[in-house]
Design brief:
By secondary structure, the protein is α/β, with parallel strands linked by helices. It has 2 domains: about 15-95, no CATH class; about 100-130 and about 145-255, 2-Layer Sandwich (Beta-Lactamase), CATH 3.30.450. The protein has 7 helices and 9 strands; from the N terminus they run ααααβββββαβαββαβ. The strands form 3 sheets. A 5-stranded mixed beta sheet has the order 5-1-8-7-6, sandwiched between helices. It has a two-stranded antiparallel ribbon with strand order 2-3. Helix 3 runs antiparallel to helix 4 and helix 3 (about 50-95) packs parallel to helix 7. The longest helix has about 45 residues, at about 50-95.
Length: about 260
């Protein structure tokens, strides 16, 4: 067995490497990508030769590119894992028949997958529809489903004519998730006056034909949902959740005594 075919578990000596290179003089021609990693002395006294400088620069660029590639691979793997988890969530949201379950599933998933300290869902009650007129001119009831719904933990329902809804005009105009620190009045819509510990948040608009509500992911870390953060997955979730709520039926809030 030749030295170059020896067990890779054994440590090669300098003589082994020399014999291998002597028998394979084209090795570095065929494997030029390894050159930037090698340290080859080039005697030039106290001065740094141009060749050494070029090799040093190439070695630095190679290291930077390798680190960037590792980071990109890590991000891609994390995004793939997140996509799979959200896909499972969307399947559960589509199949569930209870609004309470939709709220619970959404809140738990967003807290776990997006490292949110809190998730609050604000829903808007649909305005009452006027009775339809029959051919004889008589009023008939509409066929729209109407479900009375008590607010549960993490969810709040506003009447359709609540002026607080106007606070989110900019959010609905853009149609995309907004990151940053919401205004105090917006925060009060979700959690009342107890919002001093919220340093950043992501607001997901829920709308499909009509404005349905807003989901807020809140964090005590001002950089967690800072302005400019990627929101692709949150937008996708908001779009499907909006369609699901639209088909759920008209929600009528019930006041709790």
């Amino acid at each position: 067995m030749q030295p170059e075919q020896s067990d890779l578990g054994n440590v090669l000596s300098d003589d082994d490497v020399l014999r291998f290179l002597s028998r394979n003089p084209e090795f570095f021609v065929n494997n030029q990508d390894i050159l930037p990693r090698l340290r080859i002395p080039h005697e030039s006294g106290n001065a740094v030769s141009l060749i050494e400088r070029q090799v040093s620069v190439l070695r630095g660029k190679c290291s930077t590119l390798e680190n960037s590639l590792r980071d990109l691979i890590a991000v891609a793997r994390e995004n793939e894992s997140l996509h799979q988890r959200l896909h499972l969530l969307l399947q559960e949201i589509v199949s569930t028949r209870s609004l309470n379950q939709i709220v619970t599933l959404t809140r738990n998933s967003l807290r776990d997958n997006f490292n949110a300290d809190d998730v609050q869902i604000l829903l808007f009650a649909s305005p009452p529809r006027a009775p339809r007129k029959s051919a004889a001119g008589k009023s008939t009831a509409t066929s729209t489903r109407s479900r009375k719904q008590k607010a549960v933990e993490g969810m709040k329902i506003l009447e359709h004519d609540d002026t607080s809804i106007d606070l989110f005009d900019e959010l609905f105009a853009g149609s995309d998730t907004l990151c940053g620190l919401p205004g105090q009045q917006q925060l009060a819509c979700f959690v009342g006056e107890d919002h001093a510990d919220i340093a950043s948040a992501a607001l997901i608009p829920l709308q499909h034909k009509n404005r349905l509500g807003v989901v807020m992911l809140a964090s005590r870390d001002e950089s967690r949902f800072a302005s400019g953060k990627g929101v692709m997955f949150l937008n996708q979730l908001g779009q499907l959740l909006s369609r699901r709520l639209q088909t759920y039926g008209t929600i009528v809030p019930v006041s709790v005594d």
